[in-house]
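Hey,

Quick one before I head out. I ran the complex with adenosine-5'-diphosphate overnight. Inputs first:
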Amino acid sequence: MTNEYAIEAKGLVKVFGDQRAVDGVDLSIPKGMVYGFLGPNGAGKTTTIRMLATLLQPDGGEAHIFDHDIVSEAGKVRERISLTGQYASIDEDLTGVENLVILSKLAGYSRKEAKERAKELLVAFGLGEAAKKQVKNYSGGMRRRIDIAASLISTPDLLFLDEPTTGLDPRSRNQVWEIVRTLVKAGTTVLLTTQYLEEADQLADRIAVINHGKIIAEGTSRELKASVGAGTLHVQLENSDHQEKAMAILQEKLQTPIHSLPEGGSLSAQVGNASLVAKALGDLTNENIPVSDFSLGKPSLDEVFLTLTGEKTEEKEEKK
Amino acid sequence: MSQPNVIKEEQLRQAITSRKRPERPSALTTSLTFSSRALLRIKHVPEQLFDVTVFPIIFLLMFTYLFGGAIAGSTSEYLQFLLPGILVMTVSQITMYTGIDLNNDIRKGIFDRFRTLPIWLPSALVGALLVDMIRYSGASIIMLTLGFILGFRPEGGFLGVIGAIGMILIFCFCLSWVWTTLGIIMRSEKSLMMVSFMVLFPLTFVSNVFVDPQTLPSWLEGFVDVNPISLLVDAVRGFMHGNVTVEAIGWVFLSSAVFLIIFAPLTMYLYRNKK
Ligand SMILES: Nc1ncnc2c1ncn2[C@@H]1O[C@H](COP(=O)(O)OP(=O)(O)O)[C@@H](O)[C@H]1O
Ligand SMILES: [Mg+2]
């Protein structure tokens, strides 16, 4: 019987010294979906991915990729997966095309086919012009793309993307998202990690929020947001005399405590459901309370964590 | 050509959804592919040839003229005795760069990708070592050519020289696995260099490269006699002077085999299970 899961893990543990970097992670990720790991720096995302990609041996628990054990059947697992790590794993001293030709040959292409394959990928990834430049001269976005292209020489059934857009400008980020969407349409399962709620929201069908090596919440982006709320509403009144009345109206419509900020006529509230906001603002207008400015901030990762764990995300320095 | 930096959806879709999966390449193919990678790296970073070109020349000139006059009284006479030893010393010191290259590749994350490929795992290391063989041969040829210009005349003739280089290559291939082991274990290039020197200096200097061991105190002579570098120098001198013994060759094979049997599997174990 064929299994519907691309990844199944039970109680995965990895210990570094006395630190439990991954502390009992369970996963069941169906084939064909984009699954997002959302968590701050040091949460254990990379370590989990490295175990699943057969680069690290777990200290506890077990995991299967397409029914193959990641430890005892590592070779079989490697035939189905690709990894684009957090840090580019491309040889900077070589040119783009040289890098891809080498990897194509390692994938089993003949010398001639390898050249064609490398060319095809470079052009498709918008790197045709840069093919003959050394990778050290590439921009951050170009590096990311060639790194991902390198993972797709033979289309994998499962692709791991570790923070694929961290540090990229919005345009490059959109290009990476485009690549992921195209890949998934073609049937590849993607496990990606990110520190951005928006990215997980845009790309992932399901999200696991991970902190201190543990999954602290799991679900679709809608489910997670429902538990966190739609974000923070800020309203600036034209006239601070209306403040009290406005607070009462918002309080009633939004069903949530309204805070007034020290500068007069400035209100804010944590909103559970974005659709209530339009109605509440409409009511202010109906009551002749002019609003000079308003904004609905998306919930940040910090807010997600604050809600889920009651603790702030720690500011950790990136360690390599 | 297409506009730079623009991704066309249709092209992208085609390129990444061709589910073509070629046959798994053989161990030989993948090893040679890694060799071609090492050659490309030399092409782009030619400075890395410094160690196999400039070192041998400096070493030979330095030891011939600095010590040749002082120790043996005549440089050309001393050269007959010295060159085979210096050759062994230089090339076996160069082997340590194998570990440094590997260490760099690992720290830069390049090996993470190789390690997730369904290929014969040792090919990454074997391929690099094959190119190192070329580097070691190059260093030997440069040194011998210079030696010849300075007056070195091997009595063993051309075949003797070939035999000597063969001995060196076999030994250095096996010795290199010590450095690959260290290259994986050590976290920084600095600490790796330090440990490598700590191993290499006693091995190469406390040997029969410069002096006849019989002139040494007996405890030191004991070490020099079993030092694998001394064994190699014996065989290389034998080949060059045309009086090599089967015993000397046997010792080189034995010490090489010991290095290989211990350190090649150890390297692969660490490579596979790197934290
Ligand atoms: N090789 C290692 N040795 C020691 N500690 C490590 C190692 N790799 C990661 N860690 C630690 O494990 C924790 C999880 O790291 P990581 O998985 O990289 O988190 P993330 O990818 O979510 O930022 C961090 O505290 C990190 O410092
Ligand atoms: Mg990480």
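Chain B has one domain: 33-272.

Talk tomorrow,
K.
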